[in-house]
């Protein structure tokens, strides 16, 4: 049986998990891969005192891996942008195949990296970058190969989903965030997670792999969950909805919707039931309809599982020298379309609006007529006399689907109304139809 | 761009869906596959007046496809056992690759077919045979390649799941079955679906692909849903459970559990929320933990989607002539283990028991002591005075996990008790721990 040699760069959470699973399940993995996958070198800035690397040579210089002529596959698990990019490009120049879990790298520098890999005739694989252990890139690029994928919607950040899940018990965002930090679910600086940047990285990759368009991270829209209140969560529930932090990508004839924001989803839909740190990605194809992929979006061995699935695929490709590999973004470069990402004003959505209004006669009529003038139909409206406070009362409205442009203009007018407190809360809603 | 030529045998539901999607999305599929996939011949016993085959030659003799020297991939969609087996073996002898949606064929004759294909150096692919449009074979064989898969549990028959979903409203099995037949969800002879044979075919394949053991359909256990009552469904709900018709495969050191039966699952688990005709497969791996794959388990284009995903994979393999393909059952033949399927007496489960007892003093004590003598611990017990009828009252018990052997002996003694009506209802329960 042929040996394929793997060098791991980075021994943090995912690096450790990958090393441990590859070692523990070596025989089983060889049985699936048809070749022995051997870790022949490991490098990391910091040594891991808690890990037993056996007789695998360890180095603190990651370039010892990249420059080792015996390494077939370089596994990039150092994270970040610049150092990772240099490392991956150097590996490609050296004729190495690359497996990475780095979503930021692929979302931001993927077009350049794939082009370099294509020229060098090597493979760059990134399953572990999206939704951790869930093999969703494989599902989108290969499992759904027959389909025109129309949209993808995912809970692709476990930290955010944990926070929103806990907030359903009436707890405030800041309190749950602190708890998530204490539990190790959230970083000391939680920006990447709670502001949706991490999710936007993953969504960018999913959209490109699904639709066959270049990676366009910088054009996506991102809104975090830090302004979500237990009040809005409770009222969304009364309307039959649940608030999830979704990444949504939709393919339209005139462009791509690419957006991460808090979203009302019907409680009856399976994705509303995905709680805690877990991830789920819903993919809609013209032939298959809706499919969903669910599981752990993070964790040492869970993410390691996806890293190793890529290593096995690449190891098979190493042995075949085939030109007919699965294309990086699902489609051959010459079959890709140069569709632009649409501006948020052009997207379509339903909306939850919370308007704090003075309790005066005629206020509801004014609100309704502003919405009507902008062509916005109301699906539900809620106002409870018992919530009157300081002469003000919240009016909650769920609209039908309209263009974001229409809602923006209506909100401007609602906020300018002397009968409101000048601030309208707006959360987008999806029915997955 | 290279052309790969496909011949379709069978133009029923799935054949029609496959033809239509391959034709409609031809350009998109070529962009993903890196080659043009062209349907060059179609054969079916009966012509489809409702379909436009364009200029593709049609024949009523399926061997016109198998014997056409220009066909690279034979797509077997005629269904059934013997004729399909002959067709597939003939195609393999002619050096054709084969894609099939036929779970019965693979579950019963797969070992023989794979051996013939291995010798002939061709590929046989069967994604569409399990859970329709959900790419779960790909997930298990490739996406989870790093994992020792410990168990697989799935809702893999849409008809049965539709019936159990509708029965939650208090309706009887026979009434809902008739409705399902009228809606076209159930066959005139519903045995394959409601007695779990169809699910057992799929489970056999999933278990082999996940665990790396030969296909052993004939040794599996199958129990249908025709004896489930709205009463037991309602009482399972009171206990916090939902009754689903699950296929469960568990890998143990001493063998494989392989069983299809009605099962109580916790309402809080995502799989309990999978309703109607939809399918979902839960896979537990030692590295990744639990992942779930959800979507349509049947339908013309949904199943066609899986057929075409296989065609794309095979088309890439055709061009590479690689020896290092994904192994049929996930593992290279020499890496497979000869683990036997365990007898049902050896499986472990929790149990829901409904005992109809005479309303006499001391009955509960007798029941409890029989369970206790067999080492069976009780998790919950329910008995409502209001349900007393003709001097009899139902006693509902949920046990902890024990061996099926223990429950069988206890049920024998409970049924022999003069204080009961001689019939104990038993439904297995899973907590997915």
TrEMBL record, chains A, B:
Catalytic activity: L-homoserine + NAD(+) = L-aspartate 4-semialdehyde + NADH + H(+)
Record-listed L-homoserine binding positions: 187
One biological process term in Gene Ontology: methionine biosynthetic process
InterPro entries, alphabetized: ACT-like_dom_sf, ACT_dom, Asp/hSer_DH_NAD-bd, HDH, HDH_cat, HDH_CS, NAD(P)-bd_dom_sf
EC number: 1.1.1.3
SUPFAM superfamilies: ACT-like, Glyceraldehyde-3-phosphate dehydrogenase-like, C-terminal domain, NAD(P)-binding Rossmann-fold domains
Active site: 202 (proton donor)
GO MF entry, a single one: homoserine dehydrogenase activity
Pfam families tied to this protein: ACT (PF01842), Homoserine_dh (PF00742), NAD_binding_3 (PF03447)
Domain ACT: 352-428
Keyword set, alphabetical order: Amino-acid biosynthesis, Methionine biosynthesis, NADP, Oxidoreductase, Threonine biosynthesis
Record pathway: Amino-acid biosynthesis; L-methionine biosynthesis via de novo pathway; L-homoserine from L-aspartate: step 3/3; Amino-acid biosynthesis; L-threonine biosynthesis; L-threonine from L-aspartate: step 3/5
Residues involved in NADPH binding: 103
Residues at which NADP(+) binds: 9-16
Enzyme class: oxidoreductase
Protein family (similarity comment): Belongs to the homoserine dehydrogenase family.
PANTHER family noted in UniProt: HOMOSERINE DEHYDROGENASE
Name this protein carries in UniProt: Homoserine dehydrogenase
């Amino acid at each position: 049986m042929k040996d394929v040699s793997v060098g791991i760069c980075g021994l943090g959470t995912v690096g450790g998990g990958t090393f441990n699973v590859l070692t523990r399940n070596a025989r089983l993995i060889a049985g699936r891969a048809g070749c022995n996958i051997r870790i022949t070198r490991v490098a990391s800035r910091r040594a891991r005192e808690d890990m037993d690397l056996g007789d695998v040579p360890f180095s603190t210089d990651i370039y010892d891996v990249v420059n080792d002529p015996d390494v077939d596959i370089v596994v990039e698990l150092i994270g970040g942008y610049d150092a990772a990019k240099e490392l991956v490009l150097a590996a490609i120049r050296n004729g190495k195949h690359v497996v990475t879990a780095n979503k930021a790298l692929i979302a931001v520098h993927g077009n350049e990296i794939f082009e370099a890999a294509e020229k060098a005739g090597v493979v760059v694989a990134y399953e572990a970058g999206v939704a951790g252990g869930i093999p969703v890139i494989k599902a989108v690029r290969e499992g759904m190969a027959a389909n025109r994928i129309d949209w993808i919607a995912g809970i692709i950040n476990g930290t955010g989903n944990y926070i929103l899940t806990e907030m359903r018990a009436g707890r405030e965002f800041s309190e749950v965030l602190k708890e998530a930090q204490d539990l190790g679910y959230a970083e000391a600086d939680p920006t990447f997670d709670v502001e949706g940047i991490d999710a936007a990285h993953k969504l960018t990759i999913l959209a490109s792999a699904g639709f066959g368009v270049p990676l366009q991270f910088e054009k996506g829209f991102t809104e975090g969950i830090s302004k979500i209140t237990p009040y809005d969560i409770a009222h969304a529930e009364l309307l039959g909805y649940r608030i999830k932090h979704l990444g949504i990508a939709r393919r339209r004839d005139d462009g791509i919707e690419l957006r991460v924001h808090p979203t009302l989803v019907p409680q009856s839909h399976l994705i509303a039931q995905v709680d805690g740190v877990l991830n789920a990605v819903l993919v809609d194809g013209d032939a298959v309809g809706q499919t969903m992929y669910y599981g752990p979006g993070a964790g040492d061995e869970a993410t390691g599982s996806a890293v190793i699935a890529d290593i096995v695929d690449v190891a098979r490709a190493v042995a075949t020298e085939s030109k007919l590999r699965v294309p990086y973004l699902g489609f051959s470069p010459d079959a890709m379309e140069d569709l632009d990402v649409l501006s948020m004003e052009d997207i379509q959505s339903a909306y939850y609006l919370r308007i704090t209004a003075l309790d005066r006669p005629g206020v509801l009529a004014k609100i309704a007529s502003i919405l009507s003038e902008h062509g916005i139909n109301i699906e539900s409206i809620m106002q409870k006399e018992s919530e009157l406070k300081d002469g003000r009362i919240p009016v909650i409205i769920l609209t039908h689907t309209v263009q974001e442009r229409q809602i923006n203009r209506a909100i401007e007018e609602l906020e300018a109304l002397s009968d409101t407190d000048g601030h309208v809360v707006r959360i987008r809603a999806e029915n997955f139809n």
